[in-house]
Amino acid sequence: MNDWSKSLERLKTVAFQAGKLTETEWEAFAACWHPVEYKRKTILTAAGEIERYLYFVVEGVQRAYYVGDGKRDATLIFSYTGSMSGIIDSFQLQKPSLYYLETLTASRLLRLSFPDFDRLLSTYPALERWGRIGTAAAMSGLMERYIELMTFSAEEKFRVLLTRSPHVLQLIPHKYLASYLGLDPTTFSKLLASVKL
């Protein structure tokens, strides 16, 4: 099995979590995904651009972030091997993004264009369901994160991150993890040294 086939099998496993597809549905879906590779620190989508692709991460780490008036950026979300990626609201609504999407490491991705996505969802009800469930799952995760950011202490946010995703300490530079948690890098370093799980 070549790398392309292995990548599609990984995508299939993720896609089928939202419900089983028939062989015809899966073949139509799989045919629309195309492999791409990017170097580290590549901007895939810039603020003001319309997201043209939905990505499946074969290998690598990406982050979506917002740049405020003071040019300070705030990391919103990470994507890494085995997850979906992209600026989902810009992609689905075809409106300019408020955020940036960049690769933090060299990345190998599968990507699906918006015209293919739109056509697939219009043609196959099971894929429309996949899109709806995927969007609802992403929204649920964002709402949980919003609660954490608004109500948890710095230590609680740190503990939740390490309990949910302990591998991120090795994958993602700590300055981005601090930004993701809404902490300054000094506080993050202190928590890293003092909090034991």
Automatic annotation (TrEMBL):
Ranges for domain Cyclic nucleotide-binding: 36-124
Superkingdom, taxonomy of origin: Bacteria
Listed InterPro entries: cNMP-bd_dom, cNMP-bd_dom_sf, RmlC-like_jellyroll
Pfam families referenced in this protein's UniProt entry, alphabetically: cNMP_binding
UniProt protein name: Cyclic nucleotide-binding domain-containing protein
Organism per entry: Larkinella knui
